[in-house]
Every structure is written in C-alpha cells, then in structure tokens.
Amino acid sequence: MRLPDSYRRFYRIHLRYALIMLLFGLLVGVAFQESSKKLPISESVPAGMHIESVLALALVHGHAILIGVVLPLAAIWSLHIGLILGAPPLSARSLKWTTGLYIPGSIVSVLLMLWKGYHVLLGVRHGTTDLAVLDHGFIFGNHTLRAALYGLSHTAMAVGLVILGVALWRTLSREASEE
C-alpha cells in the first residue's frame, strides 16, 4: 500500500509530537512528585488542603499523556485503518487543518494546566491557604485573558479533532479507486 505524502507528513508530525509529549508527561510526573514533597501535610497545611494544593499539578501528567500521546496516536491509527479498509485518503487540506489546530491547542492547554498547578502549589507553600484568592490571582488576575486562553485552546483542539473525524467518517463510506 502506497502511503500518500500528506499522510506521511501527518504521521511524522503527530508521531514526533507524541514522543515529545511522552517525555514531557513523564518529566511532569517526576516534577509533581518532587514538588509535592516540598509541601508536607502539617498543621498549617492539613490533609484536605494538601490534596487541593497538589491536585491541579497531579492532573497535568495524565492530561499530557492523553492529549499529547494517546489522541495523536489514535488519529494516526484511525487514518491508517481507513486506508487498510479501502477508504480513499483524506485531503491534505483537512490533515493540515487538523494539525494546525490540534497541536497548538493541546500545547496551550497542557501549559495552562502546568501553570495553574504550580500557581496553586507555590501559593500554598508561601502561605496563601485561601484557594479562592489563589484562583482569583491566576493569570495575573485577568479573568478575560484566562477565559480566552482556555476557550481558544480547547476550541482549537476540538475543531481539529472534529475536522479529522468528519473527514474520516465521510471517506469510510466510499471505496478507494483501484490504481
């Protein structure tokens, strides 16, 4: 089976991204473990506050693996299975749109989670135990910027995946022309 050039490009970009995010996700897991050790459960930070303080950072590891590794690999596998089943290749344009929206959106999303995780953890370590105050101060206290960053990053990821899903769904109903 001859792989279209647009698929080769898509596979290469998404596989490299998955490998980078796998390393990043593992390093974030180690950083979380080491950082959470610096905030022991104590009289000033009881068990419940400790969990609240480290939870956002703890979630980054799993989200980095899911968003950065599992979903890109699933996209590659889905495209390849479509070809194996005899569906015609997706257009290069739809693959470019998917890549151009999904990868930047996922990077921003994971970095926002990392930023928030360390914002809360370091805030509590430095004596701010009111989580509402920490939440209010996140992203320089600018709630409009916060909403825009979260909204745009998640929308970009979702639209990228929808483009891929719809394009793949449409091609699965057609048979590839015999070459």
Order of helices and strands: HHHHH
| CATH T-level topology | Four Helix Bundle (Hemerythrin (Met), subunit A)
The total strand number stands at 0
Shape annotation: elongated
Low-confidence region ranges: none
Largest sheet: none
SSE-based structural type: mainly alpha
* Beginning-to-end CA distance, first to last residue: 10 Å
CATH architecture annotation name: Up-down Bundle
Q: What is the percent of helical residues? A: over 70%
Mean pLDDT: 91
Structural domains: how many: 1
For the record, the CATH class is: Mainly Alpha
Number of helices: 5
Radius of gyration: 20 Å
What does the secondary structure layout of this molecule look like, with pairings?
Elements: H1 5-37, H2 47-84, H3 92-125, H4 131-137, H5 143-172
Q: Can you put this structure into words, describing what you see?
A:
It contains 5 helices and no strands. With 179 residues, it is mostly helical. It has a single domain (5-172), classed as Four Helix Bundle (Hemerythrin (Met), subunit A) (Up-down Bundle). The protein is elongated, with a radius of gyration of 20 Å. The protein starts with a helix and ends in a 7-residue tail after the last helix. The mean pLDDT is 91.
Task: Briefly say what this structure is.
With 179 residues, the chain is mostly helical.
Keywords for this entry:
179 residues, mainly alpha, Four Helix Bundle (Hemerythrin (Met), subunit A), 5 helices, 0% strand, elongated
